[in-house]
Amino acid sequence: MKGVYRLPTVRRHLLNRSNIGVYVLLAVILSLFLFPVYWLVSVSLQTNDDLFQFPPQWVPFKLTMQSYKGVLLSANFLTFYKNTAIVAAGSTALSIAVSILAGYGLSRFRFRGSHLLLVFFLSSQMFPAVTLLIGLYTLYSKLHLLNTLLALMLAATTTALPFSIMMMKTFMDGIAGELEEAAEVDGATRLKALIHIVLPLTKPGIMAVTIYCFLVAWDDFLFGMTLVRDLNMRTLSPGLSLTFLGELSTNWSGAAAAAVTATAPLLVLFLFLQRYMVEGLTAGGVKE
Amino acid sequence: MKLWKIVTLSLVTAILTIVTACSGSSNNGAKPVNQAGNVSKDNQQQPASSEENIELTFANWISTEDATKDAYNQLVEGFENAHPNIKIKSLGIPFNEYKDQVLIASTGGNTPDVLMANQSFTPAFGNANIVQPLETILGGDIIDDILPSSKAGVTFNGKVIAMPWAPHPNALFWNKTLFAKAGLDPNAPPKTWDELLKYAEAVAALKQDDKGNPIYGIGEANKTGAYTGQMLLRITLSHGGKFVDDQGKLIVNQGSALVESLQYLRDIANKNVAPVGAEIKDLRAMFGTGSLGMLVNGDFGRNTFRTTSGKGEVFDKEWGVTTVPVGATGRSETVFTEHQLLISSSTKHAEAAAEFVKYLVSKDAMVLYHKLNGVMSSRASVASLPELNEDDYAKVFNEQMKTASPFPTGNPAFEQAMKETSNLTVLATTTSEDIPAIIAKILPKLQELYAAK
Amino acid sequence: MSIKWSRTLKNQAFGMLLVAPATLLLSVTILIPLARSISTSFRGASLLSAEQPFIGLANYKALLSGQEFYHALSITLRYVACTVGIEIVLGLVSALLLNSRIRFRAFFRSILLIPWAIPTLVAALVFLLIYQADYGVLNGLLIQSGLTEKKLNVLNDLNLALYGIMGVAIWRQTPLAAVMTLAGLQGVPRDWYEAATIDGASKLKTFLYITLPALKPVLANVTLLMVVANFQMFTLFYALTGGGPADATQSLAIYTYETAFQAYDLGKGSAIGVIWMLLLLLIAVPLNRVAHRSMS
């Protein structure tokens, strides 16, 4: 991020003419992007009876938590929730550990085939998941991994890994190597240098990878739909699709409440940590 | 230092969650396969000659559904009381995943001893060679008792490979309240196809209720999907169509039947007499909420409408059910779906399995099942019992079954072909393209698909 | 000398050790399945039978001689081109707005990113509610504002369904494009602009000759990311239309999935996947090169 141009904080002329235009345009764009979120929440807070009318109510007049009660009392939904949390946590932890090592390896060492490896990591995100799925399906079936959360964890990790490694590598590229060399002269091993010197400096990178992996795992639909068959093993997206989406025509409010509940933890995590995410994307995505 | 902790923590978490996931999976995961696997192992340990304690696995979906769970338990209890040496082990798989699960378990060598199926699963199971012919093992008495239309649906290459259990013919439901509002006699449903159209238009003229909800005269499935294709087949029957010719080729387009059927679907869509882009689940919900004048649906309609209306049994008073109006053929043409029972070709306990199947289709079991869930029997002698004709609802469906046709499911590509068939309906209801042109575009694909396998 | 040499060797070994877990993981979950998929594509493989006889190019021949594959390909290309195009433009506009002299930029950026944090399936569900023909809010808006008289049935209309899906993708993905572009904008050295101001260049010229070229690698990267994500898009198609009405939204992802997992024809499904993958690489490799070359 050398030579970055940071805008000076301008407090004067805040509302000069050109700025009003900018604010108005920005308001229009933001409301377009936020309206669907508002609508989802609004639907989840009404009874189905109030929803079935035309024209729809832009501002609901009777609010009820009924649908949320239904969702939170549903054993199936809680199972989906638990499974998703396990898969997301497991794959995130695995991705972090693996991508720190790989990122460091690629950033600091040149060895035979290291460039080829980089190309492999980069291009591996381009293989269509549906294509891989056919091979994965038969492979997992032989390994008796079908219908396990481990299968989903591995699948999510693979999806997130290429980009995570690139993000980590870029972050580590940005840290001067002299520090480690100095440490090595003092007799520390390479591993110790990584842990004590490099890692503390890559904290934003680690945070970025964490959020990214968590989002990817939470978002998975295809793998959860196919690699797992048991209702007990379902994660949120396929679970929602199989239960609430199927019944959408009768239970809009319930489906919306389930959707909100499924998104809420992600959104909270995201809003708190998105600063790192943006940094990570900037580094990993832009300057790779 | 702190970060070192983070890394260690994340590694530990990774390992822990993986371990949990693995152990979790060995408890709950791969359940169907494992259960089936264990059972077949048990079977091998006990030669068929030892009649002492037999355990039969029964793959089904009715034990997984709230509406039928109770009936399932009582049926199995009844059988186990009568046959103390046979235990039934349920392999409950949700309906949506049923066919895949059974096929996957079976190709892995773990076919359940007895399998439940419906008219579209049976051909797939037959094609995968995992079930056996039933004539000898069940006996002529039972086989000859099967209703002719049901028997036609389970006969493959001249052999009966599935025992029809509970048929679900489609009949016409009408909303009495809407009929009255539209100035029609609430107790006089349409008798002919022309009346059906007239009444549907009259109800649709109400346009909307007090809350602004649209009101339609009739609902016909017209969204892409196998069910929509099946309903088109039903409509062509009323217009004098026939599904397959003597060579087993899918024809549908008998005379002008297909053109007229598609014209009917287009007209009701264009005149706002029927909703467009509707799946059957949408239509059931709409009938339940009083937005549809009429709907052709199976005998489980009563339970569905009680739920979707939110009014329970009280809602029964607002509608009636009758046989599908008479069309070009002069009789009440409709289709039926059916629950069927199959026996694995690799079972070690063929006789016990046959006993179980015989019990499930017996008079006692069917009377019980009918009392609890309103289902009917595919056996002539049982369907005519007074216990299964105790009210008008049951009578209408038993009557309807006499003229109902089975789907041409003998071909394993049936479901795919039906999805393709639905494109006829979709194009007719969402475009203004010439109907013969639509048929010319889709039908050859359809026939190729159906003939391919 | 020998000490130095062994040190290099040691470092090399350490480097390899570091990348070993990642390589292993990606090999097991990408290379092996990929090899399997490719090998399956030359076989008559079905989920229904254990035998998988080698049948050479038969699957490919069947695919390339029929119409369905080309149909699915054209749907996919149209979807990707439109979606990514609009996302890039809209993302650029939003980024430029956010980069101007405004207050609460961080706040605006945060709330703009919200759609991206919403799971794709939930996004699909939201728009199912919005597009719903009888009670949906889209028809409410169109009819109340007098734009249309008849209610639209977006997802069941042969001409509208694909745009309906694009709308959802654009809604969910544009924020990411905007934020990445914004990051790129903030990386443009200030003195470049100052020089332009001294030369008296107009705003448009500054944008065309300074901002845009400086953004080239970022935009190439955003495009790459979006192309890859949308070329693969399965969830939205599956949840919104399932490929209907009448195959109007039958994308490659849906076509592959249906062939392999609903018609149980793993061989043909794999063949579609292999061709599709080659196409994706064909598009992605040059984009990747642009993104990299301009950066160094």
Automatic annotation (TrEMBL), chain A:
Biological process annotations from GO: transmembrane transport
Annotated InterPro entries: BP-dep_ABC_trans_perm, MetI-like, MetI-like_sf
Protein name: Carbohydrate ABC transporter permease
Location in or out of the cell: Cell membrane
Keyword Cell membrane applies: yes
GO CC aspect terms: plasma membrane
Any matching Pfam family: BPD_transp_1
Entry's family note: Belongs to the binding-protein-dependent transport system permease family. MalFG subfamily.
TM regions (residue ranges): 20-41, 85-104, 116-139, 145-165, 197-218, 252-273
Entry-linked Gene3D superfamilies: MetI-like
Membrane topology: Multi-pass membrane protein
Domain ABC transmembrane type-1 positions: 81-273
Automatic annotation (TrEMBL), chain B:
Cited Pfam families: SBP_bac_1 (PF01547)
Species for this entry: Paenibacillus agri
SUPFAM superfamilies in alphabetical order: Periplasmic binding protein-like II
Keyword Aminoacyl-tRNA synthetase among UniProt keywords: no
Keyword line: Signal
Chain positions covered by the region annotation Disordered: 27-50
Record PROSITE patterns: PROKAR_LIPOPROTEIN
Signal peptide stretch: 1-21
The protein's name in its UniProt record: ABC transporter substrate-binding protein
From TrEMBL, chain C:
Family: Belongs to the binding-protein-dependent transport system permease family.
Main location: membrane
Ranges annotated as spanning the membrane: 77-98, 110-131, 160-185, 206-229, 271-291
Record keyword Membrane present: yes
Domain ABC transmembrane type-1: 73-287
GO biological process: transmembrane transport
SUPFAM superfamilies the record matches: MetI-like
InterPro entries: MetI-like, MetI-like_sf, UgpAE/MalFG_permease
Record keywords, A-Z: Cell membrane, Membrane, Transmembrane, Transmembrane helix, Transport
Pfam family, one: BPD_transp_1
Compartment(s): Cell membrane
Membrane topology: Multi-pass membrane protein
Superkingdom: Bacteria
Cellular component terms per the entry's GO annotation: plasma membrane
Protein known as: Sugar ABC transporter permease
